[in-house]
Amino acid sequence: MEEESDCRKINNSFLRDHNYATEADIISTVEFNSTGELLATGDKGGRVVVFQREQESKNQPHRRGEYNVYSTFQSHEPEFDYLKSLEIEEKINKIRWLPQQNAAYFLLSTNDKTVKLWKISERDKRPEGYNLKDEDGRIRDPGTITTLRVPVLRPMDLMVEATPRRVFSNAHTYHINSISVNSDYETFMSTDDLRINLWNLEITNRSFNIVDIKPTNMEELTEVITAAEFHPHQCNTFVYSSSKGSIRLCDMRASALCDNHSKFFEEPEDPSNRSFFSEIISSISDVKFSHSGRYLMTRDYLTVKVWDLNMESKPLETYQVHDYLRSKLCSLYENDCIFDKFECVWNGSDSVIMTGSYNNFFRMFDRNTKRDVTLEASRENSKPRAILKPRKVCVGGKRRKDEISVDSLDFSKKILHTAWHPYENIIAVAATNNLYIFQDKVN
Amino acid sequence: MGGEPPTPLRAQRYTLGRGVKRKVCSCEDLVLPYPQQRQLVLDLCLDKLQNCQQRAEPSLHRSVLLANTLRQIQQEMRQEGETCLPPAPLGPSLPHASTPRHFPDLPPVPLDCPPPLTVALSPSFPLTTASEDVQLGGAENETVLPSLSAEEDARSSDMLFGSFEITNSTSYLTDLPLDDIFEDIDTSMYDSSDNSVLPFPAQRSGGGDDGFKNVSCCTSNGSLQLCLSDLNDLDHIMEILVSS
Lengths: 443, 244
What we know:
Chain A has two helices and 32 strands. By secondary structure, chain A is mainly β.
């Protein structure tokens, strides 16, 4: 699958002209809104940058719909927990858009502890002609006012402002890893390592605990929740994944506290692949429903799996992302890479799935043709409108030209976060502090 | 038996820094026999668990995975009957572990059995055999000793897992019923009525209707210990004053 690249390096810091990556600029989440018009990124410094797609113009058809910065705001600030002497990171863990209901855009962003609802709205008119103050805002001396006038709205330069509308806090003792908006558009859930809470978007001082896996004795803790998501159409259904490689589907109609699952998805372990690291690599780092709601996709360290909701015993399809790492698990454990949490995404028609890997590689799997491709997000390989060349990792023996050997892979360049436009073949790939946007080739 | 030279792996371990282009290290290049592989993983596990506490962003997920791996290895080793080892708790450093603590029933160490677990570097350590004279290359490993008992596991994992809770300390005093901090202290002499305090952990009273849970965050063992030891100090002072 060939892709035209319309690559863009977004440097979130406007003050720096150097090209090095600072920690705060590392992108920690990427998400398209439901129409694909907007693309939001969150970073380690607590900032959110929203891009908007240009309207297509007839004059420049080759510049179809590029994404430009639309709004930038500081969503979360670092906090300090005085009791534990711990800093609460401002890093944005997840962003989820709400469906658009009026001219303004709404999104939820979360750090480890607090979820916030942000409203992003445009202002292109401003009132002029106040009676009691002049155009600079200074109060007029009432003695000088001789006539009464009605203020009128006059056009001004477009201004995009982001305002926090709700703050959902104090409900999580552990680190929030996921948020998911319900299809009823009235509620959403936030998930930490041990609990899932349900909120009403309008109410910030109360949430309902719907899953709690905290044992009475913390000494007995062996499993944590790693991700959760609402079903795209059934507002009573959600799933959550665990560090032991299992997925539980729950129905909120069954009981108020959904500790008993309706379905339990787990693949039995392959005894021939057993190692010290089997459990660690089976930990699920992301779970996503397909757009149709019929399938579930999970990502663990080495594979992506597609599950049929009607079959709990094993996945429908398993795709190897970077199986050549299986023999390197000890080293990856040593340098902590084995704990990296990769995300995965569906394309709009659920026919292709995509996930990231190391060395700035990302992989796409076509579920119908069973073909897969490895692509690289790097500035050297991505001149604007260049076509991305498929990459290949050579496992052993002779290395062909253009192949890269496993031992030369750069493990500090990891692609954890990617997003796919809801309808078109446009993808956003976050490579450390750089954002790449790739579009399908235009004929 | 056990005349193999010390592996150079451990010295290599500490040369990989974060932010440096990481190559897959040579950990897998040397094909180690299974017990030594397991030993290496065990050592790494203990290192990481210790460092967990000191990280700026402690992760419960990571600690649980590490603890599970550690438990799995320890169980395997126990099953293989390797009891000829000095056990020690995970926490404070033990330069001399010649007397096993808490395990008076352990058989004496046969000196020809190479202890597969790392021992602290101490010249007076009697159980170090020549083959185990491992260079730890400038590392801070003296404090890391594996624990063999379930009790030790339990206590250490409690120490680990108990510290991950985030508190909203800015509204600490207003949000939390102060009774929770002191609920373990026996004040039965003074209580005239059966005042119920919120039990810890917070009960799920019928599930859905509960408000947000923030009560569990203040009653970690650490803070309780502090409260109780302060009280003990006061008693001690009182004794001195009174008896003099």
